[in-house]
Amino acid sequence: MLLATEPASAQWFKTKNRGSGLYTDDVSYELQRQKRRLTRPLNFGFYLSVLRSNFRAQMTDAFAQQPDPSGIISINPEAAPGFGVGFYANVRLGEFWDFRLNTQANFFERRLQYIYANGESETKIVEGSTFEIPLLLKYRAQLRGIKGMYMVAGVKPSFALSQRKEDEENVLITGSDLSIEYGLGFDVFFPYFKFAPELRFSHGVHNVLDKNEINDFNRPLRRLSNHSVTLLLHFGG
Questions:
Q1: Which pTM does this prediction carry?
Q2: 7-31 per-position pLDDT tens digit
Q3: Domain 51-236 maps to which CATH number in 3.30.2010, 1.10.10, 2.60.40, 2.40.160?
Q4: Fewer beta carbons below 10 Å: N end or C end of the chain?
């Protein structure tokens, strides 16, 4: 025999109002209440995020055609962890469409592994923090009870708050970037808040390599771009 399970928020509402005379209509009332929240023209919330970010690197033609004077034969980007916090405002555009404005601060590190002709290697770490303003369109699927999938896509300008070098000779990056972002998420409505886990992908379109100061570590590089995968946990009204 198959047993139907009720949404957690509907069970909460049933328990809360068991003696109030609303017991027979608790599920339909709860679903209608959640759907009314979707019609609000403006919603606010905050989110926490964890991410893995890395560089995409392109080498100069000279590095590809002949050995580098420093003995470097290969440069390999490595993914590294980070975290972020932010706030969002969600503007309703239609039944299934929203515009989402985010402000967030991310704290990260990115790594480049340098391999030398003698077999040795070393890793250069670029640590920093950025202030980011993702501008996203959100398309939400039809709700199934109090749950619903959604997709987001848009652009993300970002500006450096700080950048710390591991040592004096390191890879320098510029202070701003523009990224293309897209992702999938899952809205879950609870009695007093909405929870939404979201997986988002980001691809930088600008060359963030700063070659104002040439050294052994940035001379072989022609282009660096930022890429990241982020898990966000949204909490909102």
A1: 0.79
A2: 544 454 444 444 444 344 555 655 5
A3: 2.40.160
A4: N
